Amino acid sequence: MNKTLIDRIGNTPLVKSIALNDNPNVSLYFKLEGNNPGGSVKDRAAYNMIKSALDSKKINASTKLIEATSGNTGIALAMIASVFKLQIELVMPETATKERVQTMRAYGAKVTLHPDGIEGARDYAIDKVENEGYFSFNQFANDDNWKAHYKTTGPEIWRDTEGGITHFVSSMGTTGTIMGTSTFLKEQNSEVNIVGVQPTDGSKIPGIRKWPLEYLPKIFEASKVDKTIEVSTAEAKEMSRRLAKEEGILAGMSSGGATSAALKLIQELKSGMVVCIICDRGDRYLSSDLFE
Question: Is 64 a catalytic residue?
């Protein structure tokens, strides 16, 4: 047993819904990404982006790193940067929960809170790169983001469903998870249906975005998503609470949104096997009103 923390990224559990799915002809499975060492699906992309940048010598121990993040990517980057002895500044919306900020600082990262949301955080990081010699992984345009899921998430789902998956449901933020997983699953079976989750107009769900055109992630390819389902803030919150109370799965609001979308999808199906990404753990939202 010589496994390091890095070796424990991925191979997360796939568990069957025991309560929320009321369609007996469709099976619903949850991919529990909160079981990654850093507590979210973003461990996969963060490791792949850092390792690839180190291997290609784009960065080294003296490089000034910066990244804009809504939370989970920042935690993952902070954790993996600590393992590789790298210094990183993480820029977040000032509305970020206290747990997220404290976790990043615990790993040794510098945290900057921005008043203008994730768009403002992204602009701040870009300015530091262009004018102060910082290096950004730029998860929104970095192929190593989606390739992490092509190499790991997709193959795990295909293996654990024994090729039986018919529908894959994922929230869309940077879109790395859905792009990489879609690419792999479609190569195995082009009939697998890929469903993206976005917020309804006016809704704010951490980790799920409907980006303005100028901020649309460059890694996003619309052709890799077969269907988009919108969920409201209220639906995402309610489903996060139901996940905990009825399935025993404590997860964040984006996971509640994805589950809400998966259940909407299931109502339309006569048969199938649906896999839904539960992208993080809910304990990093306890200071918010999510579970009140």
Answer: no
